[in-house]
Write a structure and sequence with these properties.
This protein has three helices and six strands, in the order E-E-E-E-E-E-H-H-H. It is α+β, with helices and mostly antiparallel strands. It is globular and about 50 Å long. The mean pLDDT is 88.
Length: 142
């Protein structure tokens, strides 16, 4: 409810990385957050709220072309580590986001592997995916 997908957009970047901005609809309660990917597999999420900037580092253990294990490390400033209430809220937010995202990603994976799937154009919301696809194409044809 705080970060609806309709406001999400891909920043224009130069180099082998992407940056996706997720504006908040509730400017009083939370800051925007960004998701970044440094190709091929270093991913992070970040909020720049002045009272509690938070970074999530997504450590991917790639097991095969179609399987990986994900470890999410949440980094917070020293001054809030001892505040259990704030830390619990931050961790609950990460849990909420991923409990929504994981079933959606699983559904996309199943759809891509169905007999009815046909490749098509990406949505205007998928600029980061487009850039990553171009990175892969360039690496595979080099």
């Amino acid at each position: 409810p705080i970060y609806p997908h309709a406001g999400t957009f891909s920043e224009k970047t130069k180099g082998q990385y992407t940056l996706l901005e997720n504006p908040s609809v509730d400017e009083q309660a939370s800051a925007n957050f960004w998701v970044g990917l440094v190709f091929p597999s270093t991913m992070f999420a970040m909020t720049r709220h002045p009272d509690a900037p938070v970074v999530g580092w997504y450590q991917m253990e790639i097991q095969s072309f179609d399987q990986f294990r994900l470890h999410i490390h949440v980094l917070v400033p020293k001054n809030i580590v001892s505040n259990k209430g704030i830390v619990d809220r931050i961790l609950a937010t990460y849990e909420l986001i991923h409990s929504e995202d994981i079933p959606v990603c699983d559904g996309v994976w199943q759809g891509v592997h169905s007999n009815l799937y046909e490749p098509g154009r990406l949505s205007h919301l998928e600029g980061c995916n487009w850039k990553f696809h171009h990175y892969l194409r360039d690496k595979l044809t080099a």
